[in-house]
Automatic annotation (TrEMBL), chain A:
One of its GO terms (cellular component) is cytosol. It comes from Blastomonas natatoria. Tetramer of two alpha and two beta chains. The keyword Amino-acid biosynthesis applies. The gene is trpA. This is Tryptophan synthase alpha chain.
UniProtKB/TrEMBL annotation, chain B:
Residues 67-396 form the Tryptophan synthase beta chain-like PALP domain. Keywords: Amino-acid biosynthesis, Aromatic amino acid biosynthesis, Lyase, Pyridoxal phosphate, Tryptophan biosynthesis. It comes from Blastomonas natatoria. Tetramer of two alpha and two beta chains. The modification N6-(pyridoxal phosphate)lysine is found at residue 107. This is Tryptophan synthase beta chain. Belongs to the TrpB family. It comes from the Bacteria. Its cofactor is pyridoxal 5'-phosphate. Pathway: Amino-acid biosynthesis; L-tryptophan biosynthesis; L-tryptophan from chorismate: step 5/5. It catalyses: (1S,2R)-1-C-(indol-3-yl)glycerol 3-phosphate + L-serine = D-glyceraldehyde 3-phosphate + L-tryptophan + H2O. One of its GO terms (cellular component) is cytoplasm. The keyword Transmembrane does not apply. Its EC number is 4.2.1.20.
């Protein structure tokens, strides 16, 4: 699997995983926003593929999807954004995140080939659970792209081994049963879940859903291998549009600073 | 495909253990919902094997819904259609009268089954999506009957154009939530239903209104609706001691059609599903997923979808809000590819003509959905022999549609 993804999770601190929707507000504006994520200290980039029917997303990312599609974003634009990102940032892992239909429209092999050619390291498909892995997983693995799986509060111990079977990159723990951007889980339940997940896998465990403040990020960074932030960044893009790069960089810097010292402050 | 078709022992034993109808169907849901969907399947298997559950279902259908619905020979319609037919042609037209059910459509059959299942699973809150409002009314009805709180998601556009049904749902005690995302119609209401479900997994049961969604929904909705075809089959045999030659039903998501077709799938009976052609199949203003779409993944299943080359879902159009959905139940996708059922499409204008034709000839005001089926019957009856029998599903009554029809006909009300 991708060397870029495995080296993005250092042993001494949590990685910062940052999501934005490709093409929001326009395809032309996305590269500067991705640069800002890297400059602010993001370790892994999740590039959202817009979809007309983002049924697992809350209002913030739904609106980002619609802004992107209204700007005319096509699958070809997203792959071009990924290709350009790879040439500017050869060492930063890039993950595509989205829904099954845009990913499989031209066939799973077409998508895996195109993603691999664009330098994509992993794929998170929200609505392909392990039961339907055949729809995309084999094509991704054949191209060395990590199929990144999601575990949730409803993924019990009996089910977990199946979820991990064939998984790659990192395990994304969705800390809340719900849609993106709404509320955050209580810290105790996150700690309990991460401990349980780490006992079952050697993959890094990144925790997301509802993470907004540096304090929340630091609290998760103390127990997990990665912190995923999405809706909060998308909100900044919504507010600043094509001029979002500066505010995004400053916000990401506040998170990465908090994460950098998170474990030191508890250990001291 | 045809080779496989001839080798099948039965068309009635789908889906497979993973919920697939050939390449269609499946369980394409977020991980949070996956354990729930598996749990639902387990409970449905147990319910299906439990005579008490079946007895409860049958009892409610008889005494609350008013089943069996009549099987009716539409004599004047048959004669009217024969006027344009060549000598010796003009098939007999019969109707399965599911528009006479409580709440005015076939939707209630499925809602009775699902609410019994919800209660069996200990769920205490019901959610549903609705387009025209018929499924919303049927869901609100069974929730009132069993005293469960009920939230109905309905596109804001549909809320505006279906005010009488919104009021009905409220009278029945449901909370109606207008959905403003997307185009604010049925598919957006379904997205919002899924979002609610994923956030309320412990106490909430999602009553899906058609034979679509993640497995086991397509199977269980079909099973509950199959009462239509089982009754019709028995009624035909007892009335005239033979089966019909052709079954016809309108298709939005496809539950009334599957309900009629499924019990006949292994008989020598032809079947025709009628999609909504809207302003015509040559443009993009239609809702014919099978005839004008491509296989894809949406709302938990793989099926034919109206979509662009990037897999973005496009908005369907039909005069009938109940057919205005960019997808189709996965079993229809499979039946189409197997060649077992034929599919056609009827435009808004043709449906409007058929709507008025049935009013005048039979004294029955049909819903705009079955008006599509009647339009297809009118086209095909004249090519069939006089002793042949067409059985069409009259799946809903037209009270809800009179405002739409008046507007289209330029009548001020």
């Amino acid at each position: 699997m991708s060397a870029r993804l495995s080296s993005a999770f250092p042993a001494d601190r949590a990685a910062l995983v940052c999501f934005v929707t490709a093409g929001d507000p326009t395809p032309a504006a996305t590269p500067a926003i991705l640069d800002a994520l890297v400059e602010g200290g993001a370790d892994v980039i999740e590039l959202g593929m817009p979809f007309t029917d983002p049924m697992a997303d809350g209002p913030a990312i739904q609106a980002a999807n619609l802004r992107s599609l209204a700007a005319g974003t096509k699958t070809a634009d997203i792959l071009q954004i990924a290709t350009d990102f790879r040439s500017h940032h050869p060492d930063v892992p890039l993950v595509l995140m989205g829904y099954a239909n845009p990913m499989t429209r031209r066939g799973p092999e077409w998508f895996a080939d195109a993603a691999a050619a664009a330098g994509v390291d992993g794929v998170i498909c929200v609505d392909i659970p392990v039961e339907e892995d055949a729809a995309l997983g084999p094509a991704l693995r054949a191209k060395g792209i990590a199929p990144i799986r999601l575990a949730t509060p409803t993924t019990d111990a009996a089910r977990l081994p199946a979820v991990l079977d064939g998984a790659g990159g990192f395990l994304y723990y969705v800390s809340v049963a719900g849609i993106t951007g709404k509320q955050q889980a209580v810290q105790a339940s996150i700690e309990e879940a991460v401990t349980r997940l780490k006992a079952s896998t050697d993959l890094p465990v990144a925790v997301g859903f509802g993470v907004r403040t540096p304090e929340q990020a630091a609290a998760i960074a103390r127990v997990a291998d990665g912190v995923v932030v999405g809706s909060a960044i998308v909100d900044i893009v919504a507010e600043h549009g094509a001029a979002a790069a500066g505010p995004v960089r400053d916000y990401i810097r506040s998170l990465s600073d908090a994460i950098a010292t998170a474990r030191a402050t508890t250990n001291a | 495909m045809t080779n496989t078709a001839t080798q099948l022992n039965s068309y009635r034993n789908q889906p497979d253990a993973q919920g697939h109808f050939g390449q269609f169907g499946g369980r394409y849901v977020a991980e949070t919902l996956m354990p729930l969907v598996l749990d639902l399947e387990k409970h449905y298997r147990a319910a299906k094997a439990d005579p008490t559950f079946q007895a409860q279902f049958d009892d409610l259908l008889e005494h609350y819904v008013g089943r069996p619905s009549p099987l009716y020979y539409a004599e004047r319609l048959t004669e009217e259609l024969r006027k344009d037919a060549p000598a010796g042609k003009g098939a007999q037209v019969w109707f399965k009268r599911d528009e006479l059910n409580h709440t005015g459509a076939h939707k209630i059959n499925n809602c009775i089954g699902q609410i019994l299942l919800a209660m069996r699973m200990g769920k205490t809150r019901i959610i549903a999506e609705t387009g025209a409002g018929q499924h919303g009314v049927a869901t609100a009805t069974v929730c009132a009957r069993f005293g469960l709180p009920c939230v109905i998601y309905m596109g804001a556009t549909d809320v505006a154009r279906q005010q009488p049904n919104v009021f009905r749902m409220k009278l029945l005690g449901a909370e109606v939530v207008p959905v403003t995302s997307g185009a604010a119609t049925l598919k957006d209401a379904m997205n919002e239903g899924l979002r609610d479900w994923v956030a309320n997994v412990h106490d909430t049961f999602y009553i899906i209104g058609t034979a679509a969604g993640p497995h086991p929904y397509p199977e269980l909705v079909r099973d509950f609706q199959s009462v239509i075809g089982k009754e019709a089959r028995a009624q035909m045999l007892s009335r005239i001691n033979r089966l019909p030659d052709l079954l016809v039903a309108a298709i939005g998501g496809g539950s009334n059609a599957l309900g009629l077709f499924h019990p006949f799938l292994d008989d020598e009976v032809k079947m025709l599903g009628v999609e909504a052609a809207g302003y015509g199949l040559d443009g993009d203003q239609h809702a014919a997923s099978l005839l004008g779409g491509f296989p894809g993944i949406l709302h938990g299943n793989k099926t034919y979808l109206l979509q662009d080359e990037d897999g973005q879902i496009t908005e369907g159009h039909s005069i009938s809000a109940g057919l205005d959905y960019p997808g189709i139940g996965p079993e229809h996708a499979w039946l189409k590819d197997m060649g077992r059922v034929e599919y056609t499409a009827i435009t808004d204008d043709e449906a409007l003509d058929a709507f008025q034709l049935l009013c005048r000839t039979e004294g029955i005001i049909p819903a705009l959905e079955p008006a599509h089926a009647i339009a297809a019957v009118a086209k095909i009856a004249k090519d069939m022999d006089r002793d042949q029998i067409i059985l069409a599903n009259l799946c809903g009554r037209g009270d809800k549609d009179i405002f739409t029809v008046a507007e289209k006909l330029g009548v001020e009300m």
